[in-house]
Amino acid sequence: MNAKSLCKFTIATLMTSCASAHCVIVDTIGSASKAHGYGMGANLNARRDGSGTAFQKDTTVFAQFSTAAAKGCGKTHMQADRRVCGAPGYDPVLADLNNDIPSSTERMVSQGAVPAAYPGTLMNITFHQVNQDGAGPFRCIIDEAATGLKWNNLIITTQVPGNRGLNNAAMVRNLMTIELPERLDCRGTFGAAKSVEGK
Prior knowledge:
Keywords: Signal. It holds the Pfam family Egh16-like. The protein has 4 helices and 8 strands; from the N terminus they run H-E-E-E-H-H-H-E-E-E-E-E. By secondary structure, the chain is of the alpha+beta class. The radius of gyration is 16 Å and the shape is globular.
């Protein structure tokens, strides 16, 4: 499976009716390897024992409310906080930058944190819900060519609870399971491997 395609797929799961849902993808695993991944922008060392702003620093947000308008892999709340004058790390230029896909992907590769899955199998995605507006339901989309231009919906077999991005939970982990198509044609590169594809 293409690393770029996987990145876009996992991060796109965050897009729901609430574009700035306060949740973080803390684990992903597929059927083709034992590798565990995580969402773009996530800091696995971040504290998860609170629901205020201090615990939302690595939640990824999107400017678009529609999956059809998806561009890139969003930006972290930490970057958004750089807009606040006087806040730690204040830098309005950096605040407008999306998550750096190439460097983030390379970091995941070096950590062995890019999961793989066979066509027609299930993939598990675990979300940490920071507060009440980090709930589901979610939609999952994938761009097999890794261009960010052509997206296809994926079937969700286990959905995250919620109504329009809200529920009464906080500081909990939610499992979402998605089903990959039988005919999956991922194209591109993953590390040293070229023309990676699965059909």
